[in-house]
What does this fold into?
Amino acid sequence: MSESKQLDWKTYESITRYIYENLGKQAGVKVKGHGQTCKVTGRSGVQHQIDVLTTHSDGIHNYDTAIECKYWKDKVNKDIVMKVASIIEDAGITKGVIVTRNGFTKDGLDYAKFKNIGLVTLREWSENDDNTTPQEIKFGILQINMNIKVTGPKLLQIDLGNNRFLDVQDEFDLFNYYVELKDKKRVPFYDYVTAFR
It folds into this structure.
């Protein structure tokens, strides 16, 4: 992105809100507030500004997430992680996430892991990105519950040899075909399929 088209911190916060709002929609995540007017009062009586505040429910409890956006040239260090950890503790917010464009220092990574603060790097695309190995990004957990009923193999096609095939549309089609035995007796092909099963 050219210097004249670079993002500013306000646009960066808006993009972060947009991503959480749209990607989280399927999981029931809603944005409660964002920007300079999004403030929460902690148990201490102190008011805290939250860049993006989201909420979701598991059907029983509501969970809030405070997202701190840092559109910095430098890596985010442990001081910012400590600030977010302190805010979510004071405000009774369930989870904290820090979104930045240039990654995190080692002490920032270590302290975030200790405090269970989520870390996200969100930056502009650059020419060098074409040369890097794709990284796995975990957006969430997908749980699939399936009921599978196995009824047996389904015959779709019969190979007659010499590139000749019979397509089977329905099981009843098998009654239209017979196998002729050595004694010239004709047996429905369906009987052979049933024996195979």
In short: DSSP finds four helices and eleven strands in the chain. The longest strand covers residues 62-70.
